[in-house]
């Protein structure tokens, strides 16, 4: 199976300071994202989530491995990949609208002013900021600034949208409102999204799958959890769905207990001794109890060869 976004054997190692040993934050990270899919990744601080996102964005390099998007290797930043950071990253001397038109002009330099303005205003309206578009970031609340950042990212229509805890600095009420606005925009645009979050409920609300990372160092993606809850979803209704707590309990139990157990050095050495090839994470459905286990990786060369890879799956029952 070929993914639209395909991370193959990503490893990130930092050299030691002085005579210190090198630090491997994560290693042999394999995962894929289908076109139009919304995928969240969760793990404890220090496991390398933001570094993985930066590698997907082309803002950082892996020590080993490669990322393919649409069967092409990611090498450096590109307007095909939009990023929304937690700290908004708006240009403070520009208005909300100008922050968006600046990005749109960069994406489509041949468009005239009327086309740029109309396209930008469409996304201003989508995030509910019509009437405030002439204000500068300092004149906007934190939630409004993040809406501008989201509108800007969607406005350039990237092939892949990367969100690095975009709601982490917001209060609970504002966070909930923007989560639902993000869902509405995503459902209209059908863009491919990869998002970092520490909020289990947020991940269940937004995503099609949740990638669960073990603790660092030497972190890996242990599971890909299927969110078996139909769309459209809303915060008020999803908690009453019969599948909700089976998924939530599974993710919380992983974060509280198994993420640490799976990171145990003795377990890693035992697995390494088996000389098994690294694989894509098993796809787990906590509702049905089924696990689609990846049994082989076809890297068609080394993980860093930037060639499309695939995998085979066997369906087994969760114990």
Which labels suit this protein?
319 residues, four-stranded antiparallel beta sheet, 13 strands, 33% helix
Put the structure in a nutshell.
This protein is α/β, with parallel strands linked by helices.
Task: Detail the topology: elements first, then pairings.
Elements: E1 5-14, E2 23-33, E3 38-42, H1 49-57, E4 64-69, E5 72-73, E6 81-84, H2 96-107, H3 113-126, H4 142-155, E7 160-164, H5 172-189, E8 192-196, H6 200-206, E9 209-213, E10 221-226, H7 235-238, H8 244-261, H9 265-273, E11 283-285, E12 290-298, E13 310-317
Parallel strand pairs: 3-8, 3-9, 6-7, 7-8, 10-11
Antiparallel strand pairs: 1-2, 1-4, 4-5, 9-10, 11-12, 12-13
Helix pairs in contact: 2-3, 2-4, 3-4, 4-5
Structural class computed from helices and strand pairing:
alpha/beta
End-to-end gap: 26 Å
Q: What is the makeup of the main sheet?
A: 9 strands, mixed
Order of helices and strands: EEEHEEEHHHEHEHEEHHHEEE
Annotation field: number of helices: 9
Work out the radius of gyration.
20 Å
Instruction: Give the low-pLDDT segments.
Output: 296-316
What is the overall shape?
A: globular
Strand content: 15-25%
Give the strand line-up of the largest sheet.
6-7-8-3-9-10-11-12-13
Structure description:
The strands form two sheets. Strands 6-7-8-3-9-10-11-12-13 form a nine-stranded mixed beta sheet, sandwiched between helices. It has helices at 49-57, 96-107, 113-126, 142-155, 172-189, 200-206, 235-238, 244-261, 265-273; strands at residues 5-14, 23-33, 38-42, 64-69, 72-73, 81-84, 160-164, 192-196, 209-213, 221-226, 283-285, 290-298, 310-317. The two termini are 26 Å apart. It is an alpha/beta fold and 319 residues long. Helix 2 packs parallel to helix 4 (142-155). Strand 11 and strand 12 form a beta hairpin. It is globular, with a radius of gyration of 20 Å. The chain has nine helices and 13 strands. It has a domain at 5-73 and 197-317.
């Amino acid at each position: 199976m070929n993914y639209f976004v395909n991370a193959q054997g990503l490893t990130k190692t930092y050299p030691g300071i002085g005579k210190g040993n090198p630090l491997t934050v994560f290693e042999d990270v394999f995962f894929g994202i289908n076109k139009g899919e919304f995928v969240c990744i969760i793990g404890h601080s220090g496991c390398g989530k933001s570094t993985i996102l930066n590698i997907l964005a082309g803002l950082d390099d892996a020590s080993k491995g490669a990322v393919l998007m649409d069967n092409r290797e990611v090498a450096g930043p590109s307007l095909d990949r939009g990023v929304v950071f937690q700290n908004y990253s708006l240009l403070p001397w520009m208005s909300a609208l100008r922050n968006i038109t600046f990005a749109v002009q960069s994406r489509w330099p041949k468009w005239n002013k009327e086309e740029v303005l109309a396209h930008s205003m469409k996304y201003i309206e989508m995030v509910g900021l019509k009437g405030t578009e002439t204000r500068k970031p300092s004149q906007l609340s934190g939630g409004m600034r993040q809406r501008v950042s989201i509108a800007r990212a969607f406005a350039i229509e990237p092939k892949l949208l990367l969100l690095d805890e975009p709601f982490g600095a917001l209060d609970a009420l504002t966070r909930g409102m923007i989560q639902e606005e993000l869902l509405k925009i995503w459902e209209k645009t059908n863009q491919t999204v990869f998002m970092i979050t520490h909020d289990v409920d947020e991940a269940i609300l937004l995503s099609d799958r949740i990638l669960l990372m073990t603790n660092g160092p030497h972190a890996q993606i242990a599971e890909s959890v299927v969110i078996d809850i139909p769309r459209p979803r809303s915060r008020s209704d999803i908690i009453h769905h019969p599948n909700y707590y089976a998924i939530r309990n599974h993710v919380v139990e992983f974060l509280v207990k198994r993420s640490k157990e799976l990171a145990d050095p003795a377990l890693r050495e035992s697995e390494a001794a088996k000389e098994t090839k690294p694989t894509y994470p098993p796809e787990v459905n906590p509702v049905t109890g089924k696990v689609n286990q990846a049994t082989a990786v076809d890297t068609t060369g080394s993980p860093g060869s930037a060639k499309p890879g695939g995998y085979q799956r066997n369906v087994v029952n969760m114990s």
